[in-house]
Specification:
By secondary structure, the chain is of the alpha/beta class. It folds into 2 domains: 105 residues, ornithine cyclodeaminase, domain 1 (2-Layer Sandwich), CATH 3.30.1780.10; 171 residues, NAD(P)-binding Rossmann-like Domain (Rossmann fold), CATH 3.40.50.720. It is built from 10 helices and 14 strands. A hairpin with a 5-residue loop joins strand 5 and strand 6.
Length: 295
């Protein structure tokens, strides 16, 4: 996968989702140990391919220096039901999440955005820096982490500035990414520059939050209204009003909000994984096989 292929593929997939041409229930989350271990099951039917992602979300793994997310994706032909591919889904999850943020940032970031702030220093912090750099030309990248040594390490690897506080990172930033497993807000609305854009991609549980009520009082967009109502603590606890699904923006169904502060609350959808997995199969085979099993 490349960002140049993946970002527009996410736009198309989410436009199709918001048009109603994708069959996708809200994912099933099986809590194995609250706040520490979860299993997610994410099916979707998207045109001539369908599939399911099995994903483990283990915040506890951060204590062991192991990936907090692991996944497997199975892809099938919608026409025949035959399997097309089975693949590791950890990198797909990492990249498609950031590609979705990059896609909506193209529409919502302030003109000539120059300062990026990232709260969090893990896998999604790195993938978001890579993806967002494809749609914005940042002069300065700031990073903050609850573990200061992690922020310094990230900054050294990526040429960023490590900040001692989340507020110092966010003040004056044009685009902000929150990529944490926080259960209480790490971003305050009072810190946001008017017209800034926030991609909130962490804390995907109904009682977890990354943003406070003031931040969520801005123009809020989601990937799925149905999923946000069940899973997004940032939306649920703040009783935030949702302006649009981002697929409605991509499909031209809703106008792009202008000259306002915007928040995209990302949960991650199965259709994104299926569209990304399709790219992998196409890059290997040249096209998705129609009536036979892929090798």
């Amino acid at each position: 996968m490349s960002w140049d292929a993946l970002i527009p593929a996410m736009e198309r997939a989410l436009a199709d989702f918001s048009r109603g041409s994708v069959i996708q229930p809200v994912r099933t989350i099986v809590p194995i140990e609250e706040r520490r271990r979860y299993l997610g099951i994410m099916p979707a039917v998207a045109g001539d391919v369908m599939g399911v992602k099995f994903v483990t979300f283990y915040p506890v793994n951060a204590e062991r220096d192991l990936p907090t997310h692991n996944a497997t994706i199975l892809l099938y032909s919608t026409d025949t039901g035959q399997p097309l591919a089975a693949m590791d889904g950890r990198l797909i999850t990492e990249m498609r999440t950031a590609a979705v943020s990059a896609a909506i940032t193209k529409y919502l970031a302030p003109p000539a955005s120059r300062i990026l702030a990232i709260l969090g220093s893990g896998v999604q912090a790195g993938s978001h820096l890579a993806a967002l750099s494809h749609v914005c030309a940042f002069d300065e990248v700031r990073v903050w982490s609850r573990t200061a040594a992690n922020a310094r390490s990230f900054a050294a690897r990526h040429g960023a500035v490590a900040c001692e506080s989340a507020e110092a990172a966010v003040r004056g930033a044009d685009v902000i990414v929150t990529a944490t497993a926080a259960s209480e807000p790490v971003l305050r609305g009072a810190w946001l520059k008017p017209g800034a854009h926030v991609n909130a991609v962490g804390s995907a549980r109904p009682d977890w939050r990354e943003l406070d009520d003031e931040a969520m009082s801005n123009v809020v967009l989601v990937d799925s209204r149905e999923a946000a109502a069940k899973e997004a603590g940032d939306v649920i606890v703040a009783n935030a009003q949702i302006y649009a699904e981002i697929g409605e923006i991509f499909a031209g169904m809703k106008p792009v909000p202008a000259d306002v502060t915007t928040v995209f609350k990302s949960l991650g959808l199965a259709v994104e994984d299926i569209a990304a997995a399709r790219l992998v199969v196409e890059s290997r085979n040249g096209d998705v096989p129609k009536h036979q099993n892929a090798p």
